[in-house]
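Quick start: load a record and inspect it. Here is ATP-binding protein:
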Amino acid sequence: MATVELRFSALPEHVRTARLVAAAVARRAGVDESLLDEVRLAVGEACSRAVGLHQRSGLNGAVRVALIEEEKRFLIEVEDEAGPIGGSAGGGGAGEAEGDADGGEDVLGLAVITGLVEDVEVGNGNEGGLIRMSWPVSTTSVGV
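Running the structure step on this input writes:
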């Protein structure tokens, strides 16, 4: 199992880099070409959401993106340091208490991700929220 890990400051300008790296590693891992736009969009949305949570909370921590190549799946984890997810996907979360725009943006971001990715889990990581997404890889190996 091969893993590539990115850590970047929670700034919007780094989201594009995370999208590009995720798509390149997914292609190399054997994710079907027709799914690469989905990978790019989902990673962009998850990273943008993490950056937004950091900025709204006034945190200076890093966003972590792990790109994990398994035998039959390509897994991406996006983890923030903004504290545990406390029901923000289901309504009534901490972000919504600050105002509809912040909570609504968080819920919308999660809705976009779950609409894009068939296999997605939203939960808590070591420091904050964790979004885990995966895609199938083709059985034929990609050239080195």
